[in-house]
Amino acid sequence: MQRKNETSMAGSISNTAAPITSSLSKLQSLNGLFAIYKKQGPTSADVLNTLKEVLLREAGVQNPNPRKRRKQSLKMGHGGTLDSAASGVLVVGVGNGTKMLSTMLAGSKKYVAVGELGKATDNLDATGTVILEKDFEHITRLDIEEKLKVFTGDIMQVPPLYSALKKDGQRLSVLLKKGHKVEAKPARPVTVYKLTLQEFKPPLFTLDIECGGGFYVRSLVDDLGKALSSCAHVKELIRTKQGQFTLEEHALPEEQWTLEHILRSLQPCSDSELPDADT
């Protein structure tokens, strides 16, 4: 009788373990791209780590630590940093899909940005410290629309000091927070495909932007403020599109960060789409 109980108990344990193993195997076999919604506040890296943790926990991994790279049980990366204060589309690559993220970095992106005239901040957005205030009453809607033409097309842009760009292996933003002196990176070529003024309610203005890789909306708004004989910073920033992924159609909200929803929205990658190993 005892042997029968032991047998049935062993059977129930194995039956319980089977779905967990199956879920983890499914998760680890994913290859492709999908998009999630990043809210304001956390960094893109923090959001990605939270996503990993949620998925690993769903697959039955106890107390997952997504930051540990050794024996990493889930290969995942994102296709372009969104500022902590920004929200919107964050494209995620999983498995071999991580090799396709370079196309996301270089590809077209769309943003809606709300700028505020009359105040400049040290990091060029609303989370920074105000370092300059100037009059803006002289600025009209027509003035902004005329100046936007200068920032459309192939232009040169100086990246902001507070950015994900690195010096000696460390992010400029991290070095600045540690009190290190950081020199601005040289101006570099970027492309702005479309730039329009959607709304103007002084001191606020709303821009609709479509740009290529390496473009900083914060630098645009800062440069625009200077061009208007005033100053400005980004009050709110939303990425509405990255590559083929849009905010409305593809970005999974946090409550849908599940294997089921990812399987539905995953755009798988074929071997022919993957970049060559030597490129």
TrEMBL record:
Main location group: cytoplasm
Query: EC number(s) in its UniProt entry?
Result: 5.4.99.25
In alphabetical order, the GO MF annotations are: RNA binding; tRNA pseudouridine(55) synthase activity
Any one of the GO CC terms: cytosol
List the InterPro entries. PsdUridine_synth_cat_dom_sf, PsdUridine_synth_N, tRNA_psdUridine_synth_TruB, TruB_C
Q: Which controlled-vocabulary keywords does the entry list?
A: Acetylation, Cytoplasm, Isomerase, mRNA processing, Nucleus, tRNA processing
Residue ranges of the region described as Disordered: 59-80
GO biological process assignments: mRNA processing; mRNA pseudouridine synthesis; tRNA modification
Q: What does this protein do?
A: Pseudouridine synthase that catalyzes pseudouridylation of mRNAs and tRNAs. Mediates pseudouridylation of mRNAs with the consensus sequence 5'-GUUCNANNC-3', harboring a stem-loop structure. Constitutes the major pseudouridine synthase acting on mRNAs. Also catalyzes pseudouridylation of some tRNAs, including synthesis of pseudouridine(55) from uracil-55, in the psi GC loop of a subset of tRNAs. Promotes the processing of pri-let-7 microRNAs (pri-miRNAs) independently of its RNA pseudouridylate synthase activity.
What's this protein's name?
A: Pseudouridylate synthase TRUB1
Which organism encodes this protein? Sander lucioperca (Pike-perch)
